[in-house]
Amino acid sequence: MNMEEIIMGIIINAGDARAYAHEALEKANSGDFQGASSSIELADEAIGRAHDSQTSLLHKEAQGEKIEITALFVHSQDHLMTAITEKNLILQIIELRRQMQPLLEQAAKA
What we know:
Layout: H1 3-29, H2 33-62, H3 71-109
């Protein structure tokens, strides 16, 4: 795989991870915590694929191959870092939502 394909793999998978994380939040907001968990698993898998691509670049450099730092490469790293951060924050929001759900249901009955 050439450098551009690896970089695009990072960008695409990081984008997928963000989309799945936001999907999980939407599901949690509607009370579907099992669906939210499934979407988070998909986000984790996409982050794993992006991380694998990133690792392949690190291995190339560790083996002495010069890695050119382009704007697209930096962009891919930004996408991955943002996806990981958003997923982690969304996990915290989902947990808060899970803890609040009984209170919301109780308030709706009152």
